[in-house]
Amino acid sequence: MSKASMMCYLPGIEAGEIDKKLAEMQALYPKLGVCALLPEAEKDKVAVLQAACKGCQVPIVGGIFPALVQDGHFRTGGVWLLFFREMPYFRLYEDLPTGAAEAEQIAEKVSADIRAQIDHTPDMTLFMLFDAMVPNIGTLLDNLYLHLANRVHYAGANAGSETFQPMPCLFDNERVIRNGVLLLLLTRHKGAILEHGYHTNPHTSYATSTNGNCISQIDWQPAFKVYQDLVREHYGEEVTRENFYQYGVHFPFGIVRANHHVVVRIPVMLAEDGSLFCVGEVPPNSVLTLLKAPTVRMVETLHNLTEGLKSLNGDVSDAELLLFYCAGRRLHLGIEMATTELEAFSGLTQASKVAGALSLGEIGGSTVHGYPLFHNATLVAARW
């Protein structure tokens, strides 16, 4: 008997079809669990999934994203059902605190819960789905790493609306929550590979005044004024208050880290005082560089991603792969080029299935056993 697929895309979310699939999988795996990925257009169907899983006593968790990834396509309808042979440890935390002391306390509690689950099983991955509206994800990741260090691999993505309006986007069997995080502790899982392919502009500046994801000053001047000057000087474009939302995604910042890796930060909002709000925190005195769409090296990115998956897992041809693709990257490249990138990923890996979602920020380590970082504009891939 051939091995059952652990990924199922249903183009329609009908109770009968879900019941049928759950019964089929539960017959094979009595301790079955489900992680469901829904597109924003289907957000009202969470209750249908919860009811179906409750009816057959199957635990379910999941998230709502701007769109789904199905092999070489973006989908705005349907649902991905990602199955576990046995439901792993999971927790759904809501109303995460933003204060420094409170963030440290919740990280300590979460870490204690995780440590209690860690045994001598090799390769455990802490898989995290955050609500994209949580403003201090980077700080929370820092605090988690202080407590857990290299006991686990780190991977994840952000759920929510592409409009960046608050929306309940994480769920389990009973709840649908916002401003929270869904944690899954995956056993015998080697983690994820994260790539963006951006290369730095040699000109750098300093984020001299920041607060969370808000940059108030760059090189001691109003952030938006400096941003305008940099775009004009290096790329010959005029960014105004009126066209900022059109241009921001095409000219993101890069935070240059000590190891010369670049963490992308997309500016998504402009305040009256000239402050810029990004997807993800910008630490004080960060070294910034300006990036541009054509500097995305698609071939290099996909090669690194594919080779990284192989180095982690061995041969991934005919494997089932999970992929999160940044919504900002799709805006940055355009749907046609982004779709081409998806198709090329499926072709290069020769995966039997590629399941995932359009995400609003991604989480991965700088190395296989590395420090977890919150990224924009990346692809995160893992074996399911």
Could you characterize the architecture of this molecule?
This protein has two domains: 1-197 and 296-384, no CATH class; 205-293, no CATH class. The model has no long low-confidence stretch (mean pLDDT 92). A hairpin with a 2-residue loop joins strand 16 and strand 17 (221-222). It is globular. Helix 3 crosses helix 4 (137-148) and helix 8 (327-333) packs across helix 9. Strands 1-6-2-3-10-11 form a six-stranded mixed beta sheet, covered by helices on one side. The chain is built from nine helices and 27 strands. The longest helix is centred in the first third of the chain and has 18 residues, at 100-117. It has helices spanning 15-28, 46-55, 100-117, 137-148, 223-235, 244-247, 298-313, 327-333, 335-349, and strands at residues 7-10, 33-39, 60-65, 67-70, 73-75, 79-84, 89-93, 124-131, 153-159, 170-171, 176-177, 181-187, 193-195, 205-206, 209-211, 214-218, 221-222, 253-256, 262-265, 267-270, 276-278, 287-290, 320-326, 353-359, 362-365, 372-375, 379-383. Helix content is 28%, strand content 32%. The protein is an alpha+beta fold and 384 residues long.
